[in-house]
Design brief:
The structure holds 2 protein chains of 2 kinds. Chain A is an alpha/beta fold. Chain A is built from 15 helices and 13 strands. In chain A, helix 7 runs antiparallel to helix 15. At the A-B interface, helix 9, helix 10, helix 11, helix 12 and helix 13 of A face helix 1 and helix 2 of B.
Chain lengths: ~475, ~100
């Protein structure tokens, strides 16, 4: 038995039954990494010694009779955007190539308190900007199902690591689709939470009013187990509201009988691969057989979401990345500067990759005098209308189901010099980010050419439980 | 459409040094993106409020108590690659 193939639920059981140790579990993950990572490039940093030491420490604590819950002793892969104390955190940018944070992100701390053992840090698009992990200074992450194709992005490393069984689960961030899209392209479960459900403290900010912290797992149940640990109010992140954290696993096993599922027609039309929409509808029909009521709904603002995003997100990003000036953070430039302003120009010119420069430029432009009302304010108003779209839909239905990505994984290099075409990869995931609502990406089958296709289960704010309830049935009907 | 001159101006505002090649490339690419987002003009937003916070939180307060920072002063100063003197990061002259 290769232990690295286990789910959290299975590994947690095995550890408690004494069938294997945390060290065994970690060793199998490390073996898989040594075999596959040179092709996939999912991990950019693995410290075997540290990982094994942490695993052994958990074995010791198990022996003492300590039990920290389901994640105790389970190997986790961490997107390289989470601050990890004493461990390099680069955001895959030349700017932070040697940055070692002096503290753990809140989520990392919560996971450590629950007994997580970290294997290493995973690849991503620089500062989480991209849909293919091609904008990383460590090179592209490949799709485990086809090495000529991308794993998606920005959390492509975490998605590929989970799909290739190089870890048991992985952490990521989702601002406009950065968990759901790679999860869908790699055939794993990906959770994007309600805005503010999980603390962003210690996670490098991209677009502050959009950023969410989530995870990748091999089953819906595992995704619920992880959220039980990561969710909740944090004094270090004032955008985490004091909303009760239920036991998310209590939503499992309830079935979908009588549940109203909305099918937003705009997500099945033009621009969406027929193979993708057919696969998703096949699953929906099976849910209907399980007793769900399926109705068509309309989200008319869908087609404006990308435009609203590409105004608001770069604006927030350009403000957030101001702090990278080569003084407090960031590399000292190679070029010699004569004064402070020249120093800034040199540090930022050398430290940022193309996509980051592009987005900082868009953001600076839309925030500049004369354009603020026409672009920024207009975008924020359209965002209000997108929120209203979802509110209207949730008057009629309990959840929505839609495809995640318009196509299965695309080829490496296909869109890298065509930013606008790349931005369209997120057309079906951005609207939920605009509304701050949760969405769970779950595998829906395979394309004829053998690539994973995913669907997403979308719920109102703080109703992640509904995503798990439906997601579990989505898994079940595909096995039957 | 963004001219190369406008690109240079925005880059100056953003404190980004761009090569001539980058200026040329970005002029085209950014124009494309800005043309695309013009689609927003189709939407009637008369009387619509702006959204900048999606969960409706307002004025989040906490007690005005000093909480010890988790990272020590020396650790935070060590995040900078520049020389440190008297607990401060030494930077270049801002005024000549």
């Amino acid at each position: 038995m290769q232990l690295n193939k286990l789910k959290i639920s299975e590994a947690a059981k095995g550890l408690r039954e004494g069938k294997f140790s945390c060290e065994d579990l970690m060793k199998d993950c490390l073996v898989e990494i040594s075999v596959r990572n040179k092709d996939l490039n999912a991990f950019i940093f693995v410290d075997e010694k540290m990982a094994l030491a942490e695993a052994k420490e958990m074995d010791k604590r198990f022996k003492k009779g300590e039990d920290l819950g389901s994640l105790m002793g389970i190997p986790c892969a961490m997107k390289d955007i989470f601050n990890t104390k004493g461990v390099k955190t680069t955001c895959c940018s030349p700017m932070l190539k040697d940055f070692v944070p002096p503290y753990d992100a809140t989520v990392v701390k919560k996971l450590r308190n629950a007994g997580m053992v970290m294997i290493g840090k995973t690849n991503m698009d620089e500062f989480a900007c991209g849909s293919s992990t091609e904008h990383s200074c460590f090179g592209v992450t490949k799709n485990p199902y086809d090495l000529e194709r991308v794993a998606g992005g920005s959390s492509g490393g975490s998605a590929a690591a989970t799909a290739a069984d190089m870890c048991i689960y992985a952490m990521g961030t989702d601002t406009g689709g950065s968990i759901r899209q790679p999860a869908s392209l790699c055939g794993v479960v990906g959770m994007k939470v309600t805005y503010g459900r999980v603390s962003r403290s210690g996670v490098t900010a991209m677009a502050s009013s959009w950023d969410t912290i989530g995870h990748f797992a091999k089953s819906v149940e595992d995704a619920a187990i992880i959220l039980n640990v990561t969710a909740g109010k944090d004094l270090n992140d004032s955008t985490t509201p004091d909303v009760e954290v239920p036991d998310y696993t209590s939503f499992l096993g309830k079935g979908v009988k009588g549940l109203k599922i909305g099918i937003p027609k705009e997500y099945f039309g033009e621009g969406i691969d027929k193979e993708v929409s057919d696969k998703v509808m096949e699953v929906v029909q099976k849910l209907e057989k399980e007793g769900a009521k399926v109705v068509e709904v309309s989200l008319p603002m869908t087609k404006y979401a990308i435009a609203a995003y590409y105004v608001s997100m770069p604006a927030e990003l350009s403000a957030n990345l101001e702090r990278f000036d080569g003084i407090r953070y960031g590399k000292k430039p190679k070029e010699k500067a004569e004064d402070l302003v020249e120093y800034y120009f040199a540090a930022r010119g050398e430290g940022f990759g193309s996509e980051i420069k592009r987005r900082i430029m868009i953001g600076t432009y839309v925030l500049s005098a004369g354009y603020y009302d026409a672009y920024y304010k207009k975008g924020q108003k359209v965002r209000t209308l997108i929120i209203k779209d979802f509110a209207d839909a949730f008057e009629k239905v309990d959840v929505l189901i839609a495809p995640v990505s318009p196509t299965p994984a695309f080829k490496v290099g296909e869109f890298v010099d065509n930013p606008l075409a790349m931005y369209m990869a997120d057309s079906l995931t951005i609207p939920m980010s605009a509304a701050g609502i949760p969405s769970l990406a779950v595998p829906a089958g395979m394309s004829k050419s053998g690539l994973p296709i995913g669907l997403q289960i979308i719920a109102p704010q703080f109703e992640e439980g509904r995503c798990f309830m439906v997601g579990e049935v989505v898994e079940k009907v595909q096995v039957e | 459409m963004l001219t190369e001159e406008q690109v240079r101006h925005v880059a100056k505002l953003a404190r980004l040094k761009l090569t001539d090649e980058e200026v040329k490339k970005f002029a085209g690419q950014l124009s494309g993106v800005l043309e695309y987002v013009d689609i927003l003009k189709e939407v009637d937003t008369e009387g619509v409020e702006i959204t900048s916070q999606v969960t409706g939180l307002k004025n989040v307060m906490r007690k005005d108590e000093v909480v010890a920072s988790e990272a020590k002063r020396e650790e935070l100063l060590a995040c900078s690659e520049l020389e440190v003197d008297s607990n401060q990061v030494k930077v270049m002259n801002a005024i000549k």
